[in-house]
Amino acid sequence: IGTIGSPTHRVVDVHTHMYPPKYIELLESRSSIPLIRKFAGAKEPRLIILPAEAESLDKTAGSTETSSSHLPGRPVTTHYSSLAQKLHFMDTHGIDISVISLANPWLDFVAPEEAGEAAKAVNQEFASMCAEPSAVGRLFFFATLPLTAPPETLLAAVGHVRSLRHCRGVILGTSGLGKGLDDPALVPVFRALAANRLTVFLHPHYGLPSEVWGPRATEEYGHVLPLALGFPMETTIAVARMYLAGVFDQVPDLRLLLAHSGGTLPFLAGRIESCVVHDGHLVKEGKVGPGRRTVWQVLREQIYLDAVVYSEVGLKAAVDASGADRLMFGTDHPFFPPLGSDEQGEWESVTWNAEAVKKALGDGTDAARAVMGGNAVEILRLHEDS
Ligand code: URA
Ligand code: ZN
């Protein structure tokens, strides 16, 4: 992608996950999804997290089939938990700095009375990784919130993570406190995050109800439909709901970084606008008056988008919607490893995203450099070491 060490042209990966050892242990102890389980005949244990995978997990239970292409989930390699492996991956792809985050489904499934401590343990593990001598200056992180915990524990967690060196925000799924991100009960949490300049990295997990994929999906279509379409629609719906609920107006300092270039939001913002303006109910309620901020304004003022969309077509829509100064490169490591080549070498999923930036903004242009790293350094304050 570029040469490491050019101080003026840093390459930063803002969408890159890890499951630290304590979280892996938590998943290994479970018997329903999300879980990690060993299968006879498979070298690596399997990570089974997606709702769409639950069905194939049930099927495997009753069969002796052990061919790895038929096992549910994905193999848990060292790429998921090893700091050395993350740094090797960064070096291989010319990535100077990574802003790591716990991967889905975070602590969404943890019992209310355990969530606070679990979040502390996970966030402490991330803070320690970023403070390792081999990582200092190269790793920052998005923390995890104990969303199932009582409100006071949740707000205390915001106070905890803001004090952690190298923490630059929090990763958040779309379920919120159980009712989604347009839940008024979340507003105090958003206010606390905004007041502490913690960016919310909004990331999907739940997709869409599995019926929409039809009866053939589990057997024949792999993970394509939930990952390629369910994930981005989930993000789109979550942000549209926040917009309609007025969350962006209630918390004007809130900053959201949307995974996968905003799902389909850049492409559909015009349609959302039209549906708002032509909605009799909203008009009657006075919600479409002259003071209304449009989706387009929110996209340019409160939203950042990652560049994890794998094609210049989607990336151009993201640039048009939010501006090249609000777009940030990402890889989604350790997901989407190369299946036909060495995992220690170059990952095609990464080069596709880097190529898309070049094609959309021009090779070596200021805008391309900003997207590859400059924006992240500024927006997430990666030049500060506290
Ligand atoms: N699959 C997941 O479960 N999460 C990601 O972030 C990417 C792929
Ligand atoms: Zn991801």
Provide an overview of this structure:
Helix content is 42%, strand content 12%. The protein starts with 11 loop residues before the first strand and ends in a 7-residue tail after the last helix. It has 2 domains: 307 residues, TIM Barrel, CATH 3.20.20; 55 residues, no CATH class. α5 runs parallel beside α6, α10 crosses α13 and α14 packs across α15. An 8-stranded parallel β-sheet has the order 1-5-6-7-8-9-10-11. The model has no long low-confidence stretch (mean pLDDT 94). It is built from 15 helices and 11 strands. The protein is globular and about 65 Å long. β6, α5 and β7 form a beta-alpha-beta unit. It has 386 residues and is an alpha/beta fold. 44% of the residues are buried. Bound molecules: uracil and zinc ion. The site of zinc ion (ZN) has 5 residues, from β1. The site of uracil has 8 residues, from loops.
